[in-house]
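Q: What structure does this chain adopt?
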Amino acid sequence: MNWVGFAAAGTLVAGGILLLAGKRRAGMVAAASGTALALLDQQDTLPGYIEEVQRMLGQVQGTVDELATQREKLRRVLTR
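A:
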């Protein structure tokens, strides 16, 4: 049995219930604890996620750079 996973899920659910009940501070503490437990449980898959996020950020940066180039070209054409 994956006790860390169960604890993470239970803590996250408890945090959500506390937040819905208006217990903001306790809910945030429970949610943060549940998130930390979930990260501990998934630490062997985390590097793969980080690499994927870095790849996606690289694609976004390339798109932003291309948009900036196109914007500059359009600005030059319109200011003639």
